[in-house]
Amino acid sequence: MKNFTLLFITIFLLVGCSSKDANENWFDSKEEAIKHGLKMEGVQDTNVLEEINIDGEAFLVFFNAASEDYVNLGIANIAYENKKYSWFRSKAFTKVNTSKNENAIEISWKVESKSGKKYTAYAGTLITDDAMKIQTEEGFITPIINKKLGIYYYLN
Hints:
- This protein has one domain.
- Helix content is 21%, strand content 43%.
- The chain has helices at residues 2-22, 30-41, and strands at 48-54, 57-66, 70-81, 84-88, 94-97, 106-112, 118-125, 134-136, 139-141, 144-146, 151-155.
- The strands form 3 sheets. Strands 1, 2, 3, 4 and 5 form a 5-stranded antiparallel β-sheet that branches.
- The longest helix has 21 residues, at 2-22.
- The N and C termini lie far apart (54 Å).
């Protein structure tokens, strides 16, 4: 009985550990992976804000909801392995304040690529349309500004 229980636990762990890879969808083109990822997220391609390329990694910045007070911002890695592409998102949506009635809020969070590289995302309320700089781990930089949504963002 003890051997049977050990065998059962071993099989359970092997199946559980391999199920993550089984749920990934790999595509022949980056466009197919993006289309599939946006469908999984429940957003349209018009919700894509930017594609950012860093260190050979491609990221897509997009949103799934926006109002006068906030934008739900998402960042997904478009992974490339073995001549295939896959949508990978390591963090949930981040709510960015857009209300001009409150103090400007700047947030940052960690983002990880499928290959395990770690990056920092920055976002905040756009208070002025003038050129702006934000402080990052690399120093002061000019972020990407989206006037329509009233936010800025940057990934490094």
